[in-house]
Write a structure and sequence with these properties.
about 180 residues, Elongation Factor Tu (Ef-tu), domain 3, 2 domains, six-stranded antiparallel β-barrel, mainly beta, six-stranded mixed β-sheet, single chain, elongated
Length: about 180
């Protein structure tokens, strides 16, 4: 078992093998697909494992803006196919610095959603990429409600308390018709 020297944060997933030499295609949770270039060591957790294991980036290239990565530890397509669906993680200390109005997915997922009057709506369970803007899936008493991730809706994220404050659009939640 590998001892991880700090807290890990998921930054993406491996979604397929590429080629015959063990390369993988990566989906990052950040708009800067070149983010990996500043890293050397990543940690992988596959679907059937609980413990992360370190991998070292050997090379990175891009195919239509999709990072294709080769790790020193992976040399065949069969090994790369085994990694499909694996979480791609970095040490928290290696995370990039964001602007005040930017958030990491891990900061939003699991956050309890409230409005300015402290009315609770539910918990963020998923972040959907729609093209024009992201959408938060919020599950609460009303079931799942899709909340647009827009500056006009998102007021504040309190990372310490894991609370997301919103100004819900009229009619978004039942009983909020004003």
């Amino acid at each position: 078992m590998t001892k991880v020297p700090g807290t890990l944060v998921t930054i993406g997933t491996i979604f397929s093998a590429h080629g015959l030499k063990g390369e993988v295609k990566i989906r990052l949770f950040h708009h800067d697909q070149h983010r990996l270039e500043s890293l050397r060591t990543l940690f992988l957790v596959s679907a059937d494992e609980e413990q992360p294991h370190p991998v070292t980036i050997q090379s990175i290239r891009y195919l239509k803006q999709i990072p294709i990565v080769r790790f020193f530890e992976i040399s065949t397509r069969t090994e790369a196919e085994y990694l499909r669906g694996s979480a791609l993680m970095v040490l928290e200390k290696d995370m990039i610095t964001l602007a005040d109005d930017e958030y990491f997915c891990h900061d939003l997922l699991g956050a309890t959603v409230y409005d300015r009057t402290n009315k609770e709506y539910g918990v963020v369970t998923e972040i959907l990429e729609t093209g024009s803007n992201d959408v938060l899936a919020v599950v609460g008493k009303e079931g799942e409600v899709l909340v647009p991730f827009l500056k006009s809706v998102i007021v504040q994220l309190d990372k310490d308390r894991h609370r997301l404050i919103i100004d819900p659009l009229p009619g978004l939640f039942e009983g909020d018709e004003d």
